[in-house]
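Notes from hallway chat w/ T.B., transcribed later so I don't forget. T.B. wanted the structure written out for a chain they're using in a teaching module, and asked if we could keep both sequence and structure tokens in one place. Agreed to drop them here.
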Amino acid sequence: MNIAYWTVAGLLALFYLYAGAVKVIRSRDRLRPMMAWVDRMPLPAVRALGTVELLGAAGLILPPLTGIAPWLALAAAIGFMLLQIGAVAVHLTGDDRRITLNVGLIATTAALIWLATTWL
């Protein structure tokens, strides 16, 4: 279980590190081709979402790695699950109906939550 947790957590952390950094650094014009929903959100909200993703990625890795409050990894995984459920809602209410990636992230995060509850 330990190897499975670290593999899934590492992949999710890499994904959210990239996605969060892109949302924090890039302009709205550079985000638009990748994320059609950015025009419906204020830019500070997009930046805040990116910051949450960066912090969540750290939350998946650092607490279990250091042994300090490892339950925070479970909290971060649950937070990502809620974030992706919200992302599906945003996609379905707008013109962008592409939710395949979000559904895949929900499934992967569900597996990580199960691994975290059995591993922690």
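Follow-up for T.B.: The CA atoms of residues 80 and 120 lie 18 Å apart. Might be a good example for the class.
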